[in-house]
Every structure is written in structure tokens, then in C-alpha cells.
Amino acid sequence: MKTMAAALTAATLAFAPAPQPDDLGQTLDPDQSVAAGRAVLETGHVDIGPRYRDGAWTIQIHDDTVAPSVWRKPSDAVLRVRDAAVERVPDDPAYAFLGQPAGTPVHVVPQTQNQDVVWIGWNTQDPGVMRAISRGVTMNLLGVQGPGDLVVYVQSGNLGAPQVLWNSTMPFPQPLWVETNTHTHANWIFSKPGVYLVAVEIRADLVDGQQVSGRDVLRIAVGDSSPVEDAFTATYTASLPSTDATATAGAAPPADGGGSARPGVIVPLLVAAAAVLAAALIWMLVRGARARRRALAPEEKP
Question: Where are the domains of the chain?
């Protein structure tokens, strides 16, 4: 068992900012098959992403843990996060968004690959998807059902601040804009062991003007003692939010071209608000000047 000092050192290393690895560039074979039967994915590389085949838009899991790679239905796959992923929350205010005291053990699927832990990412690289869309997709987190909290964030470079993408303690839905032909990995933090059901939606505007969307549930078994069979058979029971408004908000990339979606109406509203305030200030100044002139003008005799 790790000593406390060793555990804290490992945690600091796991949570420390790190550049994205060089192997995120990939090209997917258009002829990759959809595997039948259940699979438990506990080490190696997997991606969540949309597929578009014969007019059907679905969410699937791209499984690189086998050769050749295959796609799997989310209902047929359990992402198992073993206890090899346990780290401790650093004593650093930069990670206060995790909502856990320093030293708390959590399961971490890191942004950079740990060979002992399943490496969860997402991509928009299915050839059918890339032919059908021009800009990108909106990935919505619709809800999380499990024993603890889930936080997904990215961090770039040694000086970059953590950027939270999804947080199960916040209201749903939570939209995330993803450009076409993107392959990304992030840090997935689970506060407690157990079975998590993560409801997601991926929607997009096709080049022909149609809007497509798909919803599914990711099944994640966190911890060695978490029963995989329970993850396969668990049912997501919470109500799912409407995403009509967030689909519109997420239909354009943010100004910096990455990260989480930022509704395009925010900047125009701020500009309009500033214009209203400026107009009100000018009106008050003019009104005040007129009042002063009236006060200084000589009083008319009857």
C-alpha cells in the first residue's frame, strides 16, 4: 500500500497540468464494424462519438482496446475504472471545483494516458459524420445517476487553469461544442466508487439543413468492488431535460474555437445592455443640465 507521502506525490503528478499527448491524431476506417455482445473496457483507449450510417445518427463507443478497432453500442459496453485510478485531491485551491477536501481519495481517468486505467475520450471522426456535417456537434450532458459526483475538465500546458466541461452538481443540460474531426481526452473525476449511468446527447446540423440528434447512457463501473453486472443491468430513471434551447446555443463554436460551448447570445446582450446604460446616463446628464439652467435663470416678474 502506498504511504501517505507517496500517495500525495502520485496525486500531485496525476492532477498536474500536462500537454496533450502526440498520439491524438487518428483516422478512422470507414469500414469498421459494430461488435456484438457485451464487453468490459478497463484498460486502453476508447472514445465516445456520433456515427452516421444509412440516415441513422447514433452514439457509439469506439473501442481501440482490440485489433482491429470496433464500434460498440453503449448498452453493450461497461467502462470499468479500476482502483489503479485512485488518487488524492491535491491541497491546491485550483481544484476547489471538485468539491472535495484536500486528501480525499477519488478515481481519476486522466487526460494523458495511464496504461493501467481505461482512457476515455470523444471524437467526431466517423467518416459518415464528417461527410454529413460541416462545423461540429453539441455534446450535452443530460444527467448523472450514481453514488457520487462526476466532474470532467481539461487543462493545457503547465500554466493553464482547469476548464470544467461537465459537472454533475450543476443544472442540466450542460452543452459542449466539439468541432468536426476532433479527437479529445479529458480528466474524469469520480468522487465515490460504484455504478454511474451518464446520460448524454449528441446533436448536429447536417449540410443538407436537417438537424439530427441521438441520446444514450454510458455505463461506468468505478472501483474494483463495483459489480460489472450491475452496470450492465442498471436503468437510468431520472427525467431528462429538454435541449432545444441549448442545441441552438451550442450550434456555433465559441470565439476561441474550443472548450465548452458559450451561447452566442451572451455578447450581443452585453452590448445591448451597455448601450441602454449609456443612453440612460446621457439622458440623466441632459436632464440635469436643463434643471441647472432653469435654476440659474433670472425669475420672470409678473
Answer: 4-249, 265-302
